[in-house]
User: Which sequence fits this backbone?
């Protein structure tokens, strides 16, 4: 964890591709959708904390992510559905 060793040249797209991959198979596409949902939910919570001085628990954030995944799957996100199908019923 030495900041002087951090690579600051890569942009957000590069970082995203390294973490979520560039694959074109169903699992890779589903993983990217899930990554987007997680980042979006955390970003929204960040905005609530900064701009509205409101915060929620980590457990609630996780529940929100699960709910967004469920809604996306119901709306037809088939790649996401393929990787989370067994967890949706929980």
Assistant:
């Amino acid at each position: 964890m030495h900041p002087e060793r951090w690579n600051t040249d890569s942009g957000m797209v590069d970082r995203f591709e390294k973490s979520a991959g560039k694959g074109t198979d169903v699992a890779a596409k589903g993983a990217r959708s899930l990554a987007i949902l997680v980042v979006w939910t955390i970003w929204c919570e960040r905005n609530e904390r900064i701009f509205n001085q409101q915060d929620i628990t980590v457990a609630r954030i996780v529940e929100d992510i699960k709910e967004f995944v469920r809604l996306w799957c119901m709306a037809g996100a088939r790649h996401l559905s393929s990787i989370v199908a067994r967890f949706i019923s929980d």
Notes: The helical segments are 12-20, 26-51, 58-74, 78-88. The CA atoms of residues 27 and 76 lie 15 Å apart. Residues 26-51 form the longest helix (26 residues). The chain has a mean pLDDT of 82.
